[in-house]
């Protein structure tokens, strides 16, 4: 019985320490997870704003897949325990773009992700509202 308890505890600890990856972010998007908003902005400007937000949040290098309409990045461990993020942009028409953001904590035991989806969209709207 004690061995069963130890194995159960060990499996729980391994689960808590498993790391989120960029592949997890892509899978979450494929499962219709994340937060989406539609903005009155053209695709190119939406792409630029998204990059700015990720850089300002302290991300590592951004893996840009502009032809496929998405970018992926990670955040260092010292940034609230680290995390991973993906941003997908879908052209609706010339001046309307749907932006979907998926963020995940690097490990389940980290209390925070460096950039939450709601914060991304708040910053996106603020940048749109900012006068030139």
Describe the protein:
The structure is a single chain. Helices cover 39% and strands 27% of the residues. The protein is an alpha+beta fold and 132 residues long. It has one domain: Fungal kinase associated-1 domain (TATA-Binding Protein, 2-Layer Sandwich), CATH 3.30.310.220. It has a 5-stranded antiparallel β-sheet. Strand 4 and strand 5 form a beta hairpin. The radius of gyration is 17 Å and the shape is globular. The chain starts with a helix and ends with a helix. About 8% of the residues have low confidence.
Q: What secondary-structure arrangement, pairings included, does this model have?
A:
Elements: H1 2-17, H2 22-30, E1 35-39, H3 43-56, E2 63-65, E3 70-75, E4 83-93, E5 96-105, H4 117-129
Antiparallel strand pairs: 1-5, 2-3, 3-4, 4-5
Helix pairs in contact: 3-4
Quick gist of this model?
This protein has 132 residues and is of the alpha+beta class. It has helices at 2-17, 22-30, 43-56, 117-129; strands at 35-39, 63-65, 70-75, 83-93, 96-105. It has a 5-stranded antiparallel β-sheet.
Give me the count of strands: 5
Beta-strand residue fraction:
25-35%
Distance linking N and C termini: 68 Å
CATH class label: Alpha Beta
The helix count comes to 4
Tally the structural domains: 1
Query: Structural class of the secondary structure composition?
Result: alpha+beta
The biggest sheet amounts to: 5 strands, antiparallel
CATH topology: TATA-Binding Protein
Helix content: 25-40%
Spans of at least 5 consecutive residues whose pLDDT stays below 50 are 7-17
CATH architecture: 2-Layer Sandwich
Order of helices and strands: HHEHEEEEH
- Molecular shape: globular
- Spatial strand order of the main sheet: 1-5-4-3-2
What's the CATH H-level superfamily name? Answer: Fungal kinase associated-1 domain
| Mean pLDDT across residues | 83
| Radius of gyration using CA atoms only | 17 Å
């Amino acid at each position: 019985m004690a061995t069963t308890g130890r194995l159960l505890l060990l499996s729980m600890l391994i689960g808590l320490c498993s790391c989120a990856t960029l592949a997890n972010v892509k899978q979450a998007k494929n499962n219709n997870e994340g937060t989406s908003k539609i903005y009155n902005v053209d695709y190119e400007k939406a792409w630029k704003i998204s990059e700015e937000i990720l850089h300002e949040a302290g991300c590592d290098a951004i893996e840009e897949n502009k032809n496929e309409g998405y970018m992926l990045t990670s955040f260092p461990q010292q940034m609230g325990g680290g995390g991973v993020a993906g941003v997908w942009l879908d052209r609706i028409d010339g001046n309307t773009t749907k932006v979907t953001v998926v963020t995940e904590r690097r490990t389940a035991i980290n209390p925070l992700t460096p950039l939450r989806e709601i914060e991304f969209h708040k910053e996106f709207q603020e940048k749109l509202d900012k006068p030139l």
